[in-house]
Design a protein that fits this description.
5% helix; 1 helix; 47% strand; single chain; four-stranded antiparallel sheet
Length: 120
């Protein structure tokens, strides 16, 4: 079973930056959309950003547009979520996912283990 391996995250003060990484197999990396979702305690899962290799389209939710950016390293089959100008309301568990559609979390078939982001 193809895994998504997440890294990054941590604690930062408001206004700071963090970068999340999501590594996967070449097959998943080149064929499927990858997205990041987050879930704060007591709240539902929220889609924040997605990138699809077919068409090379990125999409960001209104809550992070202009602050978060997806980049990639093709040699490592890894995509990154660069998070700048972080706010306390960005605090959540962040999950990367692949093989799905847009920011519809129920459509995604593969999920990373999650990484905590805390902004104070």
């Amino acid at each position: 079973d193809v895994q998504l391996v997440e890294s990054g995250g941590g604690s930062v003060q408001a206004g700071g930056s963090l970068r999340l990484a999501c590594a996967t197999s070449e097959r998943v990396y080149v064929r499927h959309c990858m997205a990041w979702f987050r879930q704060a305690p007591g709240k539902g899962r929220e889609g924040v950003a997605t990138f699809c290799p077919v068409g090379k389209n990125s999409y960001y939710s209104d809550s992070v547009n202009g602050r978060f950016t997806i980049s990639q390293d093709n040699a490592k089959n890894t995509r990154y979520l660069q998070m700048d100008s972080l706010k306390p309301e960005d605090t959540a568990m962040y999950y990367c996912a692949a093989d799905g559609t847009g920011l519809l979390h129920r459509s995604y078939k593969r999920w990373g283990q999650g990484t905590q982001v805390t902004v104070s």
